[in-house]
């Protein structure tokens, strides 16, 4: 009787929870086995890429100012006021001095009549714009396919026209894509105005099953055929390549291995008939978000896009609210760089598409845009600029420029793919229409999004 009484008292005593069961319960309650909080590890290859992009972005703004003039020239005294209007952060007389840093892009000369300093683009800069224009037109059929796939990824088969317009440069769409792409192909797209929001939307006319194939599926097939990996391990996996210095422990490696085998729904699949309230559905939806961002980056020309632009598609594609934390959770697949706009801009790269800071499978449009970066990086010491900035003329220029990056930039102008000469002072020229200049949208215009999106 005494033994039975002591056993009953032990059962009624409150048991203290040990750390091990509590940890197990917390792990099971998570929607994924990968730890949520991850410190961002820098990858200098991507960060150096964005440092060049930061300089190129300012150069593009000055280029657009010059090309917007009928004579494609602008007095030096006007640059300070125009730079302050654009919010470029220059102080007084700094904008004009900034142009001297890039003598292979901007040419400063004395006007023969007004006897004041003017600025115009160099011949190499004009040829680079011409090459980008030709590359943009040549890949227009591929851009139509990319836009079809982008709209098909949305839940309702429609996207806001304004969101696509802001990201048109990333997807290789021309400035007038509303007319040259959407209205030109009525068999693919439908443009309509929403009554409740008064916004224009792009709607897909018919879903093509042949286009509903993700880029990661082709990568898995190639990995399976070339490396002979286990079919069960490759079936739902992603290419994971952690940045240098990322600490991978034993348990984290196991968690990643388990996550790789979790099945998920395709970004192109309609989920209206599924019950998304279970724990298994949450796991699949989280991995589907990774596949959606992966496919979104695969559709871009340079396999990169700003985080603020991804946030525009968050509601239409069922992406999580805190996108930055979500992407840092998968640093082996994506890389988030804060370089390029003083930490105010977050650029997301697809890691598997780059090697040592360069695109592994470059396209013509990417190469044309990179050549502008090469012009920016060329040493100004080799440029024949007179101290008084009045004798820098193209007709007496000797082409003895030493290239910093000979992989993309050659000293011969014929390598730009344009054989004819371009006159600077010719007014009303149609071949250099400003509509085909690289996008000059202020990268900070998207920072008005709500903080919970990033």
TrEMBL record:
Residues 436-454 have a biased composition (Acidic residues). GO terms for molecular function: RNA binding. Residues 41-379 form the PORR domain. It holds the Pfam family PORR. Residues 425-454 are annotated as: Disordered. InterPro entries: PORR_domain (IPR021099), PORR_fam (IPR045040). It comes from the Eukaryota. This is PORR domain-containing protein.
